[in-house]
Structures are given as C-alpha cells and as structure tokens.
Amino acid sequence: MLFSSMTFLMFFMPLCTGAYFLCKNRNWRNAVLLVFSLLFYAWGEPKSIALIVAAAFAAWLGGLCMVRFPRLKKPIFAATVGLLTANLVIFKYLNFMARTAESLTGLDFGLKEIALPIGISFYTFQILSYVIDLYRGEISLQKNPFTLLLYVSLFPQLIAGPIVRYKTVETELTVRSESLNGAAAGCRRFIVGLAKKVLIANRVALAAEIIYGSESGAYGTLMYWLASLAYTMQIYYDFSGYSDMAIGLGQIFGFHFPENFDYPYASASVTEFWRRWHISLSRWFRDYIYIPLGGSRTTRLKWARNILIVWGLTGLWHGADWNFIIWGLYFAALLMAEKLVYGGLLSRLPRAVGRVYAFFAVNLSWVIFNLTDLNRLWRALGMMFTYRRTDLAGAIMADTSIVNSLLWLIPALIFAFPVTRELKKRIRLPEAALNLGCLVLLLLSVAFIVSSSFNPFIYFRF
Fold this sequence. Notes:
Elements: H1 6-22, H2 26-44, H3 49-68, H4 73-105, H5 120-136, H6 145-153, H7 155-158, H8 166-169, H9 180-212, H10 221-252, H11 270-276, H12 279-293, H13 300-318, H14 322-348, H15 351-370, H16 374-385, H17 392-398, H18 401-407, H19 409-415, H20 419-426, H21 431-451
C-alpha cells in the first residue's frame, strides 16, 4: 500500500487514527497500531508477514537469551546476527549470487527466482540495531515480543524508512504523549511529503522513464543529460517525500523519528552530501560497520579498506545488481579522493564551486544507480559524454508528455535548495495560513493521484 494512494488516504489512515484515538489505554493503542501495521504490510506482501514476524521473534528470543545467559552472550549474539543477516542474504542476494555464478561457470543451478519482500533491507537494519545495541548494553531488554514486533513493523517507517533505531523510540513505545498540536504538525508534515511525491517526483519521473526506455535516435546528448537531471530530482523528492510522510505520521501517534534529509543538493562536497542524504542509513553504517572496523583512526591503508567495505556494502544494501556495487565503489573513490587529494583545495574555493562539483558528481551517480541493465547504463553514459545531436522536434513528437515533465524540473530545482527554509525564517506565517496552504496542497495532490496511474516509489524495491 502506498501513502500516495487513495486507499491509504481515504480508508486506511482514517480507520487507523479513528480506532487509535478511540482507545484510551496505551496497551490498546499499541495493539491497534500493531494490527494496522501488519495489515499495511500484508496489503502488498501477504506471504511475507510470516517472515517479518519470524525475524522480530528471533531478535526478541536472541535478546532474551543474551540477558538470561550472560556467559553465552557472545555466541548467542553472533548466532542471532548471523540468522538475521542470512535471512536478508537469502531473500535479497541469493538470486544475484546464483546468476553471477551461472554467468561465470556456464552452469545452470536451476534456482527458482526468490521474490524480494518489500522493505526487507529497512526492517532488517532496524532489528539489527536492537540486537547490537542490546549486546553493547546501550538499551534495555524488551521483554514483550509484541512491543518489539510493533517497533519492527510500525507502518509509517516500515517500507522505506527512515531507519529508526530502537534506542530512538525505546521509551515512546510504551510512554508517549499525543496532542492536538502534535497531530496537526504531523498532518502538515505528511501533506508536504505527499506533495513532494505526487506533485514533483511523479511529474519529473516521466522524462527519465521516456528517455531511458526509448531506442529513438531523436534523444541525443542534451536529452540524456536532462533525463539524468530528471531522475536526480525524482529520487530526492520521492525519498525525502516518503521520509516527510513517515515523520509526520509518527508525530500523529506520538513518535519522533529522526530527520533523514537536509537539502543534500546544497552540499559543497560529496562528503557533505552523505551527511545530508539518507542520514539514518549513513549513521547506521558509521556506527555499526565503519567505526568497529577502525574508522579513520587507523593507518591510511586500513582506512581505505574501511571505506571500500562500507561503500561496497552500502551499494549492495540498495540492490542486488552490479550497478549498485559500481555505484557504491564510485562514491568510495570520490570520498577517498576528497580526503587524500583535493579536499583541502575544495574547502578553500568559493562554496558555489563546491556545489557545482558535488551536484555534478551526485547527478552522475544516479545514472549508475538507476540503470540496472549494464548495457543500457553504458549506452546512457556514452550518450552523455559523446556528443550526439538532439532532434527536438522528433523528441517531442515521439512522446509529447515529455514537455510537461521537463517543465516540472524548474520548480523541482528551486525547491531542492533551502528556499522554503529561508523564507520561513524571514516570514512568520500564522498557523491558519499554514493550514490553508496545506489544504490546498492536499487537494492538488489528491487531484493528481486520481487523474494519474503513474505512482511508483523508488525505495520500495529495497
């Protein structure tokens, strides 16, 4: 089920909030959230319900055994992490490993295609955060398996994040306060995220879909650069919009999820970009992989090894295809180059120069990220860096809807930078004006949802 669907907006959310606030007891409210969260997940993946429940139960049992049998804490921890990681590997990476082995050996292993459960990367990392932090003594044991299952399956952030660590919501799972002001703020945040997704991401996405999916000779170098820009805007508004909606929904129910984006395209370096983009994922890898490996407080050779490991895993986390590995290693190379070669020079240059460099580097990365078919990827990169004339008339005639999609790049580019944040600082709007503006955005979003069948969510495949 999509947040940007009429089913969610007109039926699921009203029924869930209605049932939730009718209950006055905290346990009953949690029960309502748990039932609706599992229903939300089952809507798209009914067969995968058993998988997420089993993963949560394994984490709960592993945590219980670590506390009850402290002498066996280390092997129990290793077994629990191994089991959860194996679950992710089997369902997300086994097909990829089999295809790679078959292409290298020429053998046919006869492995049936395993369906990828929606959101498995997100909820596995959340479960692992509970197990690891419990092992480190940073959180307390969750004795109630249903409370832990609620944390894992909580529908606002279940499918596409942000990756909410257990320690962030440990107290709020049982002790939190809902308020009218909090619910109103949550609704406004949700509507802004919905508008990002429906009014901008879906509009600019069509240009990338049309150009990358076409074999027409009319699309030359110019159009392929515009396609890369369209996807760059799509993935930002798609994912940051979802994170806004998740954070807003959490506020309605009294949860405070971490921010996941901070205008990443305003960054003046790739290093800064990854402090602003998908913040919850970057911090997860930093705290659970990079620092335990030694981080930057080691020899230069080991530091380079740590960067390569972390970014290779970051690429694989996003998808089981070679383009994601290339994408991760591409960022590893850029980050090492900034640290060792030209980072000092970059910091002394005007910030505008750094922004142009970072935006170009990131824009190119999204081409690699987007095209899982390596032949299409090489073709797209070749079209971008080997000049081919664009037949504008032919390109428009091939699909006239591309004109409207490309026009949406203008507001997309403007609002990808902290324009609205600066305006908020200078202009204090009354709450009534904010509510009216959000109402207009909601009506426009609903109108677009009703009139269009094109409504993908990029990060659902992770």
